[in-house]
Hints:
Layout: H1 2-8, H2 11-15, H3 22-29, H4 33-50, E1 54-57, E2 59-64, H5 90-102, E3 107-112, H6 118-135, E4 141-145, H7 151-159, E5 164-166, H8 174-180, H9 189-202, E6 205-208, E7 211-212, H10 219-231, E8 236-241, H11 260-277, E9 282-285, H12 287-292, H13 296-302, E10 307-308, H14 315-318, H15 334-347, E11 351-352, H16 361-370
Parallel strand pairs: 1-10, 1-11, 2-3, 3-4, 4-5, 5-6, 6-8, 7-8, 8-9, 9-10
Helix pairs in contact: 3-10, 4-11, 5-6
The structure holds S-adenosyl-L-homocysteine and iron/sulfur cluster.
Amino acid sequence: MKLDRYMSDSIENIVNKASLQKDDIVRLLKSETDEAQKIYKKAEQMKADNVGKKTFFRGLLEFSNICAKNCFYCGIRRENGNTVRYFMKDDEILEQVKYAIDNRFASVVLQSGERTDRKFIKRVSSLLEKIAYLVGNQEIGITLSMGEQSRETFEQWFRAGANRYLLRIEASNKALYKKLHPSDALHDYERRLQAIKMLQDMGYQTGTGVMIGLPFQTYEDLADDLLFMKNNDIDMAGMGPYIEHKDTPLYKYRHQLPSKRERFVLSMKMVAILRIMMKDINIAATTAMQTLDPVGREKALKVGANVIMPNLTPVKYRGGYLLYEDKPCLDEEVEECQSCLEARIAMAGDEIGYDELGTSRHYHQRMHRKN
Length: 371
Ligand code: SAH
Ligand code: SF4
């Protein structure tokens, strides 16, 4: 019965529905190459009509790889003794923030491993204060991506100037989440979910996302991931392919994974379907997509993404921030990366939102509804 419905519903009919159900999304994720073009076309149009043909830059600073957690997929997990740990000096971070502003990015992302010790919390607060001093009257977007924190910490950082936060749910299916993390209080699904909700309540522009092509993950899981983002009313999304790392427990399942090409194509479909489902959010074209395809980020921009995060981490630290293998631009300073990026974005048909905060339109709507 269900199968009949799949057969009779053309891709065109599905992408034009007012609201996509789980079986619709599964059908789209399983689409063949020529069918997928129709999904991409629709997503491209949704982007143009709702957020415009524009890409926003966020300067990414991976300021420390010290992490208290042990996620099974991640190359900088606590127990990976092969990683040389670092914490960038405040001056080095400020210099890169200045670079971002001078280059009219108007927005930075500060990312690190997860730590909840007092020293770390204070250090981040003081860094945020220094950034506020540096930028003076200019309003900039400051996104944090430092894992789960207490309400007090989130509030403290908000007061110190942070206004956006990225906290991926990683896998919205609780059973799958459990397979990807140690079973202890530090890696608890409910705790992560609560943290996402807390951020939204507090007024952070809130982003979440998942990894695509994980071991044990099904098409149904991915459809649920997209519905999770929709049902939780998120403002921004960052999703990308899962890429194996040899120093992690999940590496032993590498033979069960879809090919890298398949993971890339699935990621493209996820971005495009999410744009169709959530027309006014910000969607990142992630570094992991670039890792599997040299122009992967630009391809993602073409099918609905509207944010790109040029890596501003100084080259000497980049080798230490290997969440996964084959990360690109390990030996390229940002200036070199940026000039080619501009040309490639233009090829994807977008203009660049220089000097614009690029606030998620969905965020405005959500805050308006709340007040
Ligand atoms: N510690 C913070 C932020 C840094 S990790 C946190 O975990 O939230 C940032 C993201 O990198 C994670 O959310 C995860 O989705 C992604 N990541 C980690 N290992 C990965 C891998 N092997 N392949 C693809 N993405 C990975
Ligand atoms: Fe730490 Fe984040 Fe990696 Fe998990 S994904 S080990 S929290 S850096």
